[in-house]
Specification:
Elements (H helix, E strand, L loop, with lengths): L1 H5 L3 H29 L7 H20 L9 H13 L11 E2 L6 E2 L3 H38 L8 H13 L13 E6 L13 E7 L13 H10 L12 E6 L9 H13 L4 E4 L1 E2 L13 H11 L3 E5 L21 E6 L35 E4 L3 E4 L10 E4 L2 H18 L12 H14 L20 H7 L27 E2 L17
Parallel strand pairs: 3-5, 3-6, 4-5, 6-8, 7-13, 8-9, 9-10
Antiparallel strand pairs: 1-2, 11-12
């Protein structure tokens, strides 16, 4: 590098030096910002930003060669150059400066003006490059420490925290006490990533793998971690019932697909493991004769669970813009709590599936539905919902967002745990537990959800209204709900449409996925 610098005129040396210095600063800042935004230790893409940070430092060091005055360089100055470059920046205030002569090692006097000009340039370069180098080295050290000790530095982006707060406020989570302690909640999905930094405090009470038969929990698709995080996340994002005893059953493979038998077997395992609530952020075609009789293994497993006093919460589906006329199964089962999705304004998320509550003969006969079993029963956050991202996938981050009734389902499942914590008699093994308690809860939901403006009865999209856990607790006479102002939500029609499919029980998805790691289609 020194030889290249010597071949250039002084003017061009300084131009190249400025370019290298500026480029180094820019690269270092970009690498530093991206590392801190994406969180150190969060994924494979972090290495790219570390390399970028390193290139920035190298570029700044290289720029020093092009600011040097080679015609005055001696052997001693060559040895002390890097030290003096940073430590002697303020010497431009002196009238004269002694420099060792290249050939005779004798002192050479410089004029006050040249000393001042060189000193000012050196001061600017020294301070700016020095600070950036120190910051860069600090980030590099933090990265090494985070990798060696498996420590996560940073947290979710502020936008995700804001969205989470808005959803917690509109569903009444923030005005109630409790965290779900004493309630057993089972999530049937693609698994869970136990190494996620926001899941280190969860109480994982049981694990079952219907796909790979592994004894250790994992998530090779990511959806299960996202849904479980809505319920039990702590420290970064905040789940709405982080104190529950969590059961996780993996029934969805790495392609986001599971079959009826695997999911039904997982539901049976949840029941055998004493689950009070089963969260099913999944769906598919209804079994033939659903509503009259069923030959569907999953629907049969769900009905058996309800008969034992287990609350089943399932997704309505995400085909709202190309709706087939009814909610997905098993959300279509009579006593299941079926959940649609809304945006942060309280408007229905345009992908949320509508219910067919008038009955039909073709293509699949069902009886007309009556209260409180009209579908969907309730709506909850379903648009850009903050979620956890499983490690080891392509996202490169621990946090993201997702739109779909999958998230709405998990949100209601966690909220239901808060209600059962304050009313243990309604739990599966409680004094009033059983299928009657499930029917009572559905009555409470139909009577205490927040309807949209102009709504006075069940709506095929909006259900009986927006979930309000504080109103549910108030209706049961619990003191855990603090007084809150119940305002009517205004439906906005300008909300942009997003699509993300719930996990399905077929080989192909009907709706393309969109979340924070997938492009909008």
């Amino acid at each position: 590098m020194e030889d290249i610098a010597r071949t250039l005129p002084v003017k061009w040396r300084r131009i190249v030096g400025i370019i290298l210095l500026s480029g180094g600063i820019i690269l270092s800042i970009i690498g530093w910002v991206m590392l801190t935004q994406r969180t150190l230790g969060s994924g494979p893409e972090e290495l790219i930003w570390v390399i970028l940070l390193g290139l920035g430092v190298i570029s700044m060091v290289m720029s020093i060669h092009f600011f040097r005055k080679f015609e005055h360089r001696g052997w001693l100055e060559d040895a002390l150059f890097y030290w003096s470059f940073w430590s002697d920046s303020l010497e431009f205030l002196d009238d004269d400066r002694d420099i060792i002569n290249e050939n005779e090692n004798e002192l050479v006097d410089h004029s006050e003006s040249e000393s001042g000009q060189d000193g000012v340039l050196k001061l600017v370069i020294g301070i700016s490059a020095g600070l950036i180098v120190l910051l860069s080295l600090a980030i590099a050290v933090l990265w090494v420490i985070s990798r060696a000790a498996n420590i996560t530095i940073g947290g979710p982006p502020s936008a995700l925290l804001t969205w989470e707060d808005e959803y917690r406020d509109m569903t009444g989570i923030d005005v109630v006490s409790g965290d779900g302690t004493g309630v057993v909640l089972c999530v049937v999905d693609s698994g869970i990533d136990p190494d996620h930094p926001d899941l280190q405090k969860m109480h994982l009470a049981g694990w079952h793998d219907s796909i790979g038969d592994s004894d250790s929990p994992y998530d090779d698709e990511g959806h299960g971690t996202a849904m479980a995080g809505i319920i039990v996340a702590q420290d970064g994002l905040t789940g709405n019932a982080p104190g529950v005893s969590l059961l996780v059953a993996k029934a969805i493979d790495d392609q986001g697909v599971g079959n009826d038998e695997q999911i039904a077997e997982s539901v049976d395992w949840c029941v055998a493991s004493q689950a009070d609530v089963i969260s099913l952020s999944l769906g598919g075609a209804q079994g033939f004769g659903s509503g009259l009789f069923t030959t569907d293994a999953l629907e049969e497993a769900v009905e058996d669970a309800i008969n034992q006093g287990v609350y089943i919460v399932a997704a309505a589906g995400n085909d709202g813009e190309d709706d087939d006329g009814d909610v997905e199964s098993p959300g279509s089962v009579e006593d299941v709590i079926c959940v649609g999705g809304v945006t942060r304004t309280g408007a229905i998320w345009t992908g949320s599936s509508q219910g067919d509550n008038d009955g039909r003969i073709w293509p699949n006969p069902i009886f007309p539905r009556s209260n409180p079993d009209k579908k969907p029963e309730v709506v909850a956050p379903g648009h850009e919902v903050p979620i956890l991202m499983a490690g080891g996938l392509s996202s490169g981050s621990w946090w993201g967002w997702s739109s779909g009734t999958s998230a709405s389902t998990a949100w209601v499942s966690g909220a239901l745990a808060l209600v059962l914590e304050e009313n243990p008699e309604l739990q599966r093994e409680g004094d009033s537990g059983g299928p009657g308690a499930v029917a009572q809860m559905k009555d409470l939901i139909s009577e205490n959800s927040q309807m949209k403006e102009g709504q006075s009865e069940h709506d095929d999209h909006y259900g009986y209204g927006l979930l309000r856990v504080d109103l549910l607790l108030d209706s049961l006479g619990n003191s855990s709900a603090f007084p809150t102002d119940v305002s009517v939500l205004v439906q906005h029609n300008s909300e942009e449409s997003f699509h993300e499919p719930i996990q399905i029980r077929r080989s192909t998805a009907r709706v393309p996925p969109v979340n924070s790691t997938n492009p909008r289609e």
